[in-house]
Write a structure and sequence with these properties.
Multidrug-efflux Transporter Regulator, Chain: A, Domain 2; three-stranded antiparallel β-sheet; two-stranded antiparallel sheet; 5 helices; 5 strands; about 55% helix
Length: about 150
């Protein structure tokens, strides 16, 4: 799916997603099986679904209920530098610089760099933690300097 094909959910879809999310979220709290069985009411067909897939469905419904479009992309175990850049939210040349500087491990297949998804996810998590820490430090410095005093 291309980003130009993504369509925001309609108000009716948002409403249905919210109702479904509320029901699924409360049901998930009660489930004990790793592969619970669900029934499709229209066809009376029963299917077993991994609980991780039901949790993902709950996340999807929550986003749809907020009016956010959804796209599901399978995550390969190895990524290109372009895919890593999209996941992190930066440019491909920046990712190339990160891997060449040793900040993210990679392997080279011919001329192409391949990065493990878990390494990219770890890097992104660390960067988010650093950003959060920096923001907290800035806020503390502002408070200490009296910027919030009236």
């Amino acid at each position: 799916m291309k980003f130009t094909e993504i369509i925001k959910p309609s108000k009716d879809e948002q409403r249905a997603a919210m109702e479904s999310y509320d029901a699924l979220a409360s049901t998930l709290k009660l489930l004990r099986s790793e592969n619970p069985e669900i029934e499709i009411e229209e066809t009376e067909e029963k299917i077993k679904i991994p609980i991780s897939a039901l949790r993902l469905l709950a996340d999807i419904l929550k986003e749809l209920s907020n009016g956010n479009p959804i796209s599901i992309v399978p995550i390969a175990t190895e990524m290109t530098t372009q895919a890593a850049a999209e996941f992190i939210g930066c440019s491909r040349p920046h990712v190339v610089k990160l891997v060449e500087n040793g900040e993210i491990p990679f392997t080279k297949i011919g001329k192409h760099r391949r990065i493990k998804f878990e390494d990219v996810a770890r890097y992104r998590k660390e960067m988010k933690a650093k950003q959060k820490s920096s923001i907290i430090n800035l806020m503390q410095m502002d408070e200490e300097s009296g910027l919030y005093d009236t």
